[in-house]
Amino acid sequence: MSEDDDKQGVVYQPKKGAALGARLEFAMMHARLKPADLRRRLKVEHGVTMSKTNTYKLLNGGVERTKYFMEIAEVCNVNARWLATGHGFMTDQTGRLSSREQAAKNIHRLMVQHVVPPNRNDILRLHGRMLGLIQHGLLTPELVTQLGQTLDALVDENEGA
């Protein structure tokens, strides 16, 4: 029996994280991001610090899952469920977020950028109320933009004082 005969019965088993890595790579291509861009945007937009090593482990299948699915999906503008499981569509059928989804995304970004610390119950209640307004269609992207400008002005006032 030759060595080639022994290899015929072997079935290739990819790493368990390979599928996640492939989806992440595809999502990054969709968003036109390099690993460094992904890390930078995660830090700026969500306050998430991811090392180069962990980023490449995630991309190369060395990690089966990450607790930052939602943040990565948002940065890459893809469906978090698809990124996590491979089920469903990578993006919605139009390739764009609805105005409510965009408003929710903007509110989350504003909260992360302007509101600290995360353990304040009053701030968490405010965030919940805003998301409730979004769900009922009462908080438009224009109002979110105005809120962002107001928060920027308040931050500038506090830094100048």
Could you please describe the fold and organization of this structure?
The mean pLDDT is 77. Helices cover 65% and strands 0% of the residues. The longest helix is centred in the C-terminal third of the chain and has 20 residues, at 141-160. Helix 7 runs antiparallel to helix 8 (121-135). The chain has 161 residues and is mainly α. The protein has two domains: 18-85, 434 Repressor (Amino-terminal Domain) (Orthogonal Bundle), CATH 1.10.260.40; 99-160.
* Binned strand content: under 5%
Intertermini distance: 84 Å
Percent helix: 55-70%
* Mean pLDDT reading: 77
Individual helix count: 9
| Helix/strand order | HHHHHHHHH
Largest sheet: none
Query: What is the CATH superfamily label of the largest domain?
Result: lambda repressor-like DNA-binding domains
Return residue spans where pLDDT drops below 50 for at least 5 consecutive residues.
none
Taking Cα atoms only, what radius of gyration do you get, to the nearest Å? 21 Å
